[in-house]
Specification:
Strand order of the largest sheet: 2-1-3-4-5
CATH class of the largest domain: Alpha Beta
Order of helices and strands: EHEHEHEHEHHEEEEHEHHEEH
CATH superfamily of the largest domain: Response regulator
Number of domains: 2
Structural class: alpha/beta
Largest sheet: 5 strands, parallel
CATH architecture of the largest domain: 3-Layer(aba) Sandwich
Length: 231
């Protein structure tokens, strides 16, 4: 399951991201309203955590635009102001729930689980590329009938790529998504984890799904379908 956190306070973002990842969620982050809108409209998130007081575009407007654009992803709004007027504005803009800062992380997790239970039909939809499948609800990974056991970071990397089948995931995109906003590609950590994934996903199979895009990054693609179409 993938969650987008739109929050301009870096410490709060890191706190939420770290906690959610410990609960086995995949997390994307945005630090202003414009970036949050762009990511929410391009990517298929299971839930959005959205601060009200954001640079460029405030959270109320972000929520309103997403709903106007038919983005129905559940939204939890965060605010430092505990007033009825603020809560009403957020809910009227299309938010599903509301949480006042400072909050206990356990309460945030409980609210996330409650919203995701309402979306269980959407969440049961598996991601599939070739004969590899991921169940976001259980984090089970299979290649054909063979269950693949992945570490947390391996799973998040595979989930990220499988949500963009056939599209190039640049090293910067992967690094910021898996290792955080301040990721700098001064090591071979991405190559190491891609190698781990290949050993578990592609090793022993004729059809290799994880592809290297030279000098750019990686993608996951079922090339056998393209070959069949061309023939």
């Amino acid at each position: 399951m993938t969650i987008l956190v739109v929050e301009d306070e870096i410490k709060i973002t890191r706190f939420i991201k770290k906690g959610l990842e410990m609960e086995h969620y995949t997390v994307d982050t945005a630090y202003d309203g414009e970036e949050g809108l762009e990511k929410a409209e391009i990517n298929n998130y299971d839930l959005i955590i959205l601060d009200i007081m954001l640079p460029k575009v405030d959270g109320i407007e972000v929520c309103r635009r997403l709903r106007d654009n038919k983005v129905e992803t559940p939204i939890i709004m965060l605010t430092a102001r505990d007033t009825v007027e603020d809560r009403v504005k957020g809910l009227d803009a299309g938010a599903d729930d509301y949480l006042v800062k400072p909050f206990a992380f356990g309460e945030l997790i409980a609210r996330i689980r409650a919203l995701l239970r309402r979306e269980k039909t959407v969440k049961s939809t598996k991601l599939t590329v070739g004969d590899v499948s991921i169940d976001p609800a259980t984090h089970e990974v299979f290649r054909g009938d063979k269950e693949i056991h992945l570490s947390s970071k391996e799973y998040r990397l595979l989930d990220y790529m499988m949500r963009r089948p056939g599209n190039v995931c640049t090293r910067t995109m992967i690094g910021e998504h898996i290792w955080g906003y301040n990721f700098t590609d001064d090591s071979n950590v991405i190559d190491v984890y891609i190698s781990y994934l290949r050993k578990k996903i592609d090793s022993g199979f004729h059809n290799k799904l994880i592809q290297t895009v030279r000098d750019v990054g990686y993608k996951i693609q079922d090339k056998s379908k393209a070959i069949k179409k061309s023939s």
